[in-house]
Structures are given as structure tokens and as C-alpha cells.
Amino acid sequence: MGLANLALRMKYRAYERTSELPLAQDMIRQLAFEAQFWNMSIGELVGALLTAIVKRDDFFQQLEPNSKQP
């Protein structure tokens, strides 16, 4: 299947950064399904997921390729 890009724009004070995340169509479909289930937009769902990761203090562990999951 082809890839779609999900653009993530982050703003902090005067700084702004946009990152494109290439996702397979089935992953976009799964995000859309989950967002619909929670009555959210895909953007709101991704934002909530990222917020939860940061609050759990797992953010930097998720970025490391060889990190061990609990």
C-alpha cells in the first residue's frame, strides 16, 4: 500500500516546527477508526496520544530505536 503523510506542527512560544510522518494507509485507517470511536478528530487523537506519552515520561524512550518496553 502507498504512504500518506501526516503533518505534525508544534508551536512553543516563538518557535514552530513541522514534521511529516509517513504512514501507511492502514495506519491512517486505524487512526480514523480510533478517533471516530472516541468522538475526536484524527488531530485531536494524535495530540492526546502525544500528551499522554509526555505525561508518562516515556517520550524519549519512544524515540530511541532499541528502547525496552515495560
Short overview:
By secondary structure, this protein is of the alpha+beta class. It has helices at residues 25-37, 42-55, 59-63; strands spanning 3-12, 15-24. The termini are far apart.
Model description:
Helices cover 46% and strands 29% of the residues. With 70 residues, the protein is α+β, with helices and mostly antiparallel strands. It has a two-stranded antiparallel ribbon with strand order 1-2. Helix 1 packs across helix 2 (42-55). The radius of gyration is 14 Å and the shape is globular. The model has no long low-confidence stretch (mean pLDDT 80).
What are the salient characteristics of this protein?
single chain, 3 helices, 29% strand, globular
Structural class: alpha+beta
Q: How much helicity do the residues have? A: 40-55%
Radius of gyration: 14 Å
Task: Report the mean per-residue pLDDT as an integer.
Answer: 80
Q: Which residues sit in consecutive blocks of at least 5 with pLDDT less than 50?
A: none
Sum up the overall morphology in one term: globular
Beginning-to-end CA distance, first to last residue: 31 Å
Largest sheet features: 2 strands, antiparallel
Strand order of the largest sheet: 1-2
Q: Which H/E pattern describes the elements?
A: EEHHH
Secondary structure: number of strands: 2
Q: Provide the β-strand percentage band.
A: 25-35%
- Number of helical stretches of at least 4 residues: 3
